[in-house]
Amino acid sequence: MEDYSQEDWGNHSQDLHGYPTDQELDEIPLTKRTLKIKQESSEEAQKRDIMQNIVQILESVQLKWELFQSWTDFSRLHLSNKLAIFGIGYNTRWKEDIRYHYAEISSQVPLGKRLREYFNSEKPEGRIIMTRVQKMNWKNVYYKFLEITISEARCLELHMEIDWIPIAHSKPTGGNVVQYLLPGGIPKSPGLYAIGYEECMERPPSPHLERHSLDPGKEGRVDLETLSAQASLQVEIEPTRIIYCYLGIAEVRTLQQCLFLHFQANTKTFSKDWVGINGFLSQNCIVDPGVSPKSIYIKFVEVERDFLSAGSLVECLEKAIGYPLKFNN
To answer: Residues annotated as region Disordered (predicted)?
Structure first.
């Protein structure tokens, strides 16, 4: 790698991070500054969660790290037109274990181009790596990748970037039967869709609550909200978790047609012999008096029909979420 002056690196670091000066901070009202910090914290947390998910995928398929040596590595691998999940790693002189520096799903830009950016000192990504090697923060730099199809890339996008849509249901009719109310705007085009249900887990009260219940504090006062929480059921409800149970491929029919068949047709013709996702959705429509059906969610993404037959989509999603899909055979 080329020599790079400390002064230039310092200037680049400021440009890269975009930290405001003390004078700029003083000019920003406190409320706006707080909102900005919260927004940045939320965005950083989201990016960290996505990267952690990608790392888990790479680890689950047990890929070997490749030592970066020269540009001929990329030419030899013919990466110019491949899409892939890739990771950049490093080790130090003190610890040989390779750790992740970055991980990404290269679903829009070919893998070869993205790797060149990470190993090119003229690019922001490559500049960071070059400087850490020059300063002996790192010893060697490594990379690993898993080639994916366009449909698998869209499947991972469905998981990590598309929000769940809750499915409403009608009031019970005919005694104990409810009907699903699909939202509007479902595309009349091919693509991928997922169906999930809400799972709320209970856990024992936290040590923090127990500690407050035994020790009201040095000042002899107990927070009213803490008392209220302790007076209620001694459990804490985990944040809503939506469990994937089915991945559908709308190849012959459109997304709208497929989802209609799952959610509308089966409420009219019940059968206890039905199995799979349709049986699950049908049984969920039969409720006891005063009991609500299980909360159901959907998400979908449009994919060109020609790409849908490529790849192993169910296995791709199962690796990403970390558990099997209950109703996909």
So the answer is: 1-24
End-to-end CA distance of the chain: 51
298 in Cβ contact with 259 (< 8 Å)? yes
Helices (H), 30-93: 30-60, 72-77
Instruction: Note the pLDDT tens digit of each residue in 194-233.
Output: 999 998 654 444 444 444 433 444 444 444 444 344 444 4
Q: What angle do helix axes 207-214 and 224-231 make, rounded to 10 degrees?
A: 110
The total of structural domains in the chain comes to 2
Rounded Cα distance, 294 and 326, in Å: 16
Q: At what angle do helices 313-321 and 30-60 cross, to 10 degrees?
A: 120
Integer Cα distance of 226 and 229 in angstroms: 5
Q: What contacts 101, CB < 8 A, 6 or more positions away?
A: 88, 89, 90, 129, 141
Strands 191-199 and 296-302, by their bridges, are antiparallel
78, 174: one domain: no
Domain ranges, residue 305: 157-200+241-321
What residue type is 88 in one-letter code?
I
Q: What span, in angstroms and rounded, lies between the C-alpha atoms of 34 and 227?
A: 29
